[in-house]
Amino acid sequence: MRLMSKNILITGVSRGLGLAIARAVVAAGWTVYGVSRATSPEFAALAAAAPGRVKFCAFDLADADGVEKVVFGPEFAGLQVPLDGFVNNAATAYDDLVSNLNLARLQAMYALNVFAPMMATRQFVRNALLHGKGASIVHVSSISAHTGYKGLAMYASTKGALEAFSKNTAREWGARGIRSNCVVAGFMETAMSGALDEEQRQRIHARTALKAPASLESVAATVVFLLGEGAASITGQNLFVDSGTI
Amino acid sequence: MKPAPTLLSVVNQVLANKRRPAIAALPPETRLREELGFDSLDMAELTVRLEEAFGVDIFAAGVVRTAGEVEARLPAAQP
Hints:
The complex is a heterodimer.
Chain A: E1 7-11, H1 16-27, E2 31-36, H2 41-49, E3 54-58, H3 67-71, E4 85-88, H4 103-131, E5 135-142, H5 153-173, E6 178-185, H6 198-206, H7 216-227, E7 238-241
Parallel strand pairs in A: 1-2, 1-4, 2-3, 4-5, 5-6, 6-7
Chain B: H1 7-17, H2 40-54, H3 67-73
Helix pairs in contact in B: 1-2
């Protein structure tokens, strides 16, 4: 059991997909190092159900500069903790027409969606180099980076940046057993898509083969797969979990 | 008790990971890339191992090439 154990750092764990991923990681028998601005009753319940295997750090990832000192500091996921996986899940969606683009909001979104995970990857790779046993990075991307949607150009661009970063990280660090992949999630029923009205939802779902939203559990299970030994030969890939967007 | 790490012991750890024999001494003029055969990934590993051992990021203040340049950025050894 000890040999099978893994330490997995996950951002955005308090709700939505991050919470579903944390649950799936605990169910796999691994330990969660969760990061969110604040905890939630659901995350606290998960921690209570798996004593010692669910750690939490309250941190606002909009502060990309603090990632190194706080998240990867000696009080939380520092070099003393051998990390096996990093799931970059936390994100925000600023949606608007390109003609209305606001630079301050764009910069805030890039800080959280791109700069913080890039800084976290820097620290994660350093951790993996020290412990030398290989590691897996999984970025949560979005179908919007591949199929255009009105209003999502800015958000989609952050996910496109992550996919390019992931591909190159995979190439750079593969020789040290560090893998990097993206799960390209379709529209899910989470707070992030909460602003959509029923007609918009139907239009989006009509563009998928399954005519349904992507399930949180299916996306979370794919993340766990990429973290695990079954994906040992998979790196630099984008796995689409999107109800077959067409 | 584990002996306190030294630049030599950390360099030998990186060499061991490359399945290369340990070295007995590390004169200050030793060039890490040319003489020890460290590539950029080895240099990154050396950086992290030194940071863990000494709490200093040797590349934070610019590129280092020789053992002596690395040593100069580490905290002075305790007497």
